[in-house]
Write a structure and sequence with these properties.
Layout (H helix, E strand, L loop, with lengths): L3 H29 L11 H37 L17
Length: 97
């Protein structure tokens, strides 16, 4: 006799097997359709590739800086939102002359 939990496990495994077969078949089709390419990379190609990598790193740095500023501002607002600390020297009901 089979348990219902065992059947559910087999059904879940069947879904992942279908995905795996689909992925393997797509990879096999791509590899089968591959054709040799006659390409030439001139000496300037390395310079362009280096510029792409450095530009990407620069963009990541700017993005990190912007995200850090936004996150730190939110954190500061979160902790400063509670108002004045208890036991502070300034009393809100007192008047200054």
């Amino acid at each position: 006799m089979r348990d219902h939990k065992e059947d559910e496990g087999l059904a879940a495994m069947g879904g992942s097997c279908v995905r795996m077969v689909f992925f393997v078949s797509i990879v096999a089709l791509v590899l089968a359709a591959e054709q040799p390419t006659l390409a030439y990379l001139d000496p300037g190609s390395g310079s362009v590739a280096l510029q792409v990598v450095l530009g990407g790193l620069g963009a990541l740095g700017v993005l990190a800086r912007l995200l850090w500023r936004g996150a730190s501002a939110r954190i500061a607002r979160f902790f400063c939102r509670s108002g004045p600390a208890q036991g502070s020297a300034v009393d809100s009901n007192s008047t200054t002359r």
